[in-house]
Amino acid sequence: MRSNGDVRHFESLDALIRSAVGTEIPVAALFAWLRNENITASGWSADLSQYASGRITARRLQPAPVAELTLLLEK
Description:
By secondary structure, the chain is α+β, with helices and mostly antiparallel strands. It contains 2 helices and 5 strands. It has a domain of 51 residues. It has a 3-stranded antiparallel β-sheet with strand order 3-4-5, with no helix packed on it. It is globular.
């Protein structure tokens, strides 16, 4: 990842996301949610009820701290 002239390397996409947003996000589940497939991810619950209008919300309740991910999709 390149940021402000610095280059950082990560061992995986998961490590890059954890560094960028401060918590882990279930990447495989995220791609499924983007296809409107409500698969489960440990500790996460996705709300795809507004998918048709371009909104996905996912919440992680476990492990703490609680995290919320909101995706707004453009068509």
